[in-house]
Design a protein that fits this description.
Blueprint lengths: L7 E4 L5 E6 L8 H8 L12 E5 L4 E5 L13 H21 L16 H8 L7 H12 L7
Length: about 150
């Protein structure tokens, strides 16, 4: 969800709550998320919302709300924070294991073509030896095959 995007809670004639996500433009409608919710995300069980509706004309997606409260801005005790992040890690692992593998896009090898531009921008922030280290990593990356 984009920073400025605010989901709305809605009730669709029942006791279950739903999130209605409206996108300001067709380009921002989360079609990849919709495709995942229609196909493989169900294997995550109660950890994933259910897709209720997706409408391109309205640029809106409706999903079931999940239990819990947003963490944004919350201050947790250190032990609780560790437990929350551990659980997030477990869910992230389940998410990545559940999604089907996708072939690497054509020409998606290491992004070394932009390295010189990024190195130039970073140069004022580098300490002695950093530039040589980065250049060596770039050189090594040039020989890597695309990720599968």
């Amino acid at each position: 969800m984009d920073k400025g995007e605010q989901p709305r809670l809605a009730c669709a004639g029942c006791l279950r709550r739903h999130l209605v996500r409206e996108s300001p433009s067709e380009r921002q409608v989360p079609w990849r998320e919709v495709r995942a919710l229609r196909t493989w995300a169900g294997s995550l069980g109660s950890a994933a919302p259910r897709l209720v509706a997706a409408d391109a004309e309205l640029r809106a997606v409706v999903v079931t709300a999940l239990p819990g409260r947003p963490l944004h801005g919350r201050i947790l005790a250190p032990a609780r924070e560790r437990e929350v992040f551990r659980r997030i890690g477990v869910l992230a692992r389940r998410f990545h294991e559940a999604s089907p593998p996708r072939p690497a896009p054509a020409g998606s090898g290491p992004a070394v073509a932009k390295a010189d531009r990024h190195l130039e921008a970073a140069r004022p922030h580098l300490t002695p030896g950093d530039e040589e280290f980065v250049c060596e990593l770039i050189h090594q990356a040039e020989d890597l095959a695309p990720l599968e």
